[in-house]
């Protein structure tokens, strides 16, 4: 494993299937050994058409969908003196990020889906409101037909999912990573830093410890 | 090769290809239940179903139980299966309709008896209860346009190895490509798909004939299992080079590569045999299954780059459907 991880990327700025799988395994291992990561789960999924890495994250945001129910609950508890000191429960939004290797572009591609607790999948407006950090919204919305985030079908589940356009990834990787020193493991971390931040997926500091 | 037809004439035939559709309103959404008149249209195979929605919404407006539904709430179903709108209707037909594809060997007067009863293709349109397994449409048609352009980009990247071509396309040409594959809409009134505009714009993207593709954009759709729980499609995609090293058995039709070793064009048969050896034990003869494109069986000996140059859908991809024989 150590020998594999120190080998350089053979097709930089692209990744081969086996390099991608090794890098995913490596990242999953590092997360398991690191403590206090903000991700609630990271899992390596092995499917007939390739490996993928699923990172699950929960974000506490006020949900407009559940707001009326919360108000009702509060008014019922008005007479309970302890209710005043109890913090209002924040419903959590679950984001499932899946990292796959694009069979077309030969680079990692980030698919994601979001769900409120007890609620179905949400739309692109919700993505910009709850997932994309404010400083990236304008920039992301201005690319392509409808922005840097598209809706499509998840390659594994065939269910509707969002994805970040992978068509510029190879050029971007070529301009920031050094072909003479980049390994599949460091490629994946650099890529995650490049693509993840615009959809609120940050590389945990603990991984570099 | 006898009767060598030009790539252009095949492309014209593909773009002229039409399917008779008979579209009925879902009986649960109709005030007359199943007594609503059907909408009949001869529709280009390379076009996409949602482009029909404004006409269908207007046609069925007096029958709708829910008068507030909008045209972009519309989705299509065939025998209980919600149809993925981002695939051209010709591909959906080849996948689901179950009609025997046309082939060179089948005599014209010897058509299978069920062909007459399976056409027109009967679809059901809904304007309520959007199925959870379909990507939602939007009022401005941006989601559909975006899906098409993403597909165009992928094909372009495979052909050239970069996405620079499509990125450098002007906004007019980029939307021109999308308009070309649509029959008239409210925004682009016209009577048919527009091959000439399409050719002008796609010539900017396509490598010259003298310059081979880097990879050939082909997706292969596996046969659907009749009693499968989910309607999800199994699609095979792999980087496909237009030429492969010549085997000693096939010394004819060899090309010389720059490095001096001999190459031969990669054929449909060699791709299917390599990717799906169980379904295609031979690279020359279909034994268990046959490849179908635009409603016709394509020859195993056809070079894949020629297939894509002549017979790709409007997004630049050849979508080959694998049909079991017998």
TrEMBL record, chain A:
UniProt xrefs under Pfam families: Autophagy_act_C
Top-rank taxon, per record: Eukaryota
Gene Ontology annotations for the cellular component aspect, listed alphabetically: cytosol
InterPro entries the record matches: Atg3/Atg10
GO molecular function, one term: Atg12 conjugating enzyme activity
BP terms from Gene Ontology: autophagosome assembly; autophagy of mitochondrion; protein modification by small protein conjugation; protein transport
Keyword field contains Transferase: yes
Alphabetical UniProt keywords: Autophagy, Protein transport, Transferase, Transport, Ubl conjugation pathway
PANTHER family, per database record: UBIQUITIN-LIKE-CONJUGATING ENZYME ATG10
Family per record: Belongs to the ATG10 family.
The name this protein goes by in its record: Ubiquitin-like-conjugating enzyme ATG10
From TrEMBL, chain B:
Name of the molecule in the record: Autophagy protein 5
Membrane topology: Peripheral membrane protein
A GO BP entry: piecemeal microautophagy of the nucleus
All copies of domain Autophagy protein ATG5 alpha-helical bundle region, residue ranges: 143-207
UniProt cross-references to InterPro entries, sorted A to Z: Atg5, ATG5_HBR, Atg5_HR, ATG5_UblA, Atg5_UblA_dom_sf, ATG5_UblB
GO molecular function: Atg8-family ligase activity
Subcellular location per the Swiss-Prot or TrEMBL entry: Preautophagosomal structure membrane
Family membership: Belongs to the ATG5 family.
Low complexity composition bias: residue spans: 243-261
Domain Autophagy protein ATG5 UblB: 215-322
């Amino acid at each position: 494993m150590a020998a594999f991880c120190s080998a350089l990327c053979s097709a930089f700025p692209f990744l081969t299937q086996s390099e991608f799988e090794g890098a995913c395994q490596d990242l999953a291992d590092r997360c398991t050994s690191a403590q206090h990561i903000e991700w609630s789960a990271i899992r390596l999924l092995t499917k007939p058409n390739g490996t993928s890495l699923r990172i699950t994250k929960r974000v506490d945001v006020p949900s407009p969908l559940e707001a009326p129910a919360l108000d009702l609950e509060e008014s019922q508890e008005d007479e309970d003196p302890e209710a005043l000191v109890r913090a209002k429960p924040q419903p959590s939004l679950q984001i499932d990020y899946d990292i796959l290797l694009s069979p077309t572009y030969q680079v990692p591609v980030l698919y994601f889906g979001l769900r409120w607790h007890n609620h179905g999948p949400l739309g692109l407006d919700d993505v910009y409101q709850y997932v994309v950090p404010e400083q990236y919204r304008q920039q992301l919305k201005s690319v392509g037909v409808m922005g840097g985030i598209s809706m499509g079908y998840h390659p594994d589940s065939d269910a509707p999912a969002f994805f970040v356009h992978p068509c510029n990834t190879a050029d971007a990787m070529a301009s920031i990573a050094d072909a003479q020193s980049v390994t599949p493991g460091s490629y994946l971390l650099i890529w995650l830093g490049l693509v993840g931040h615009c959809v609120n997926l940050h590389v945990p500091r603990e991984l570099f410890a | 090769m006898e009767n060598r037809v030009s790539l252009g004439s095949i492309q014209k035939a593909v773009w002229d290809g039409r399917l008779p559709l008979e579209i009925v309103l879902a009986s649960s959404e109709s005030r007359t239940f199943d007594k609503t008149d059907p909408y009949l249209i001869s529709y280009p195979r390379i076009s996409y179903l949602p482009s029909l929605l404004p006409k269908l919404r207007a046609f069925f407006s007096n029958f709708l139980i829910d008068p507030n539904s909008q045209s972009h709430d519309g989705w299509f179903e065939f025998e209980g299966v919600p149809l993925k709108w981002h695939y051209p209707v010709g591909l959906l037909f080849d996948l689901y309709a179950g009609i025997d594809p046309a082939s060179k060997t089948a005599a014209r007067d010897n058509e299978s008896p069920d062909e007459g009863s399976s056409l027109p293709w009967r679809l059901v349109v809904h304007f309520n209860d959007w199925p959870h397994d379909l990507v939602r449409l939007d009022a401005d048609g941006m989601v559909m346009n975006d899906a098409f352009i993403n597909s165009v980009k992928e094909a372009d990247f495979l052909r050239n190895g970069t996405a620079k071509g499509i990125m450098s396309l002007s906004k007019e040409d980029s939307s021109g490509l999308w308009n070309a594959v649509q029959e008239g809409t409210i925004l682009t009134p016209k009577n048919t798909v527009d091959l000439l505009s399409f050719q002008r714009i796609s010539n900017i993207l396509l490598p010259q004939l003298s310059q081979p593709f880097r990879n050939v954009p082909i997706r292969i759709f596996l046969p659907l299992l009749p009693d499968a729980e989910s309607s999800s499609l199994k699609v095979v995609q792999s980087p496909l080079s237009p030429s492969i090293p010549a085997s000693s058995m096939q010394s004819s039709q060899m090309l010389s590569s720059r490095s001096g070793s001999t190459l031969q064009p990669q054929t449909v048969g060699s791709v299917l045999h390599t990717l799906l050896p169980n379904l295609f034990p031979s690279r020359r003869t279909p034994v268990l299954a046959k490849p179908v494109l635009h409603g016709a069986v394509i020859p195993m000996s056809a070079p894949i780059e020629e297939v894509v140059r002549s017979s790709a859908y409007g997004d630049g991809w050849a979508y080959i459907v694998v049909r079991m024989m017998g």
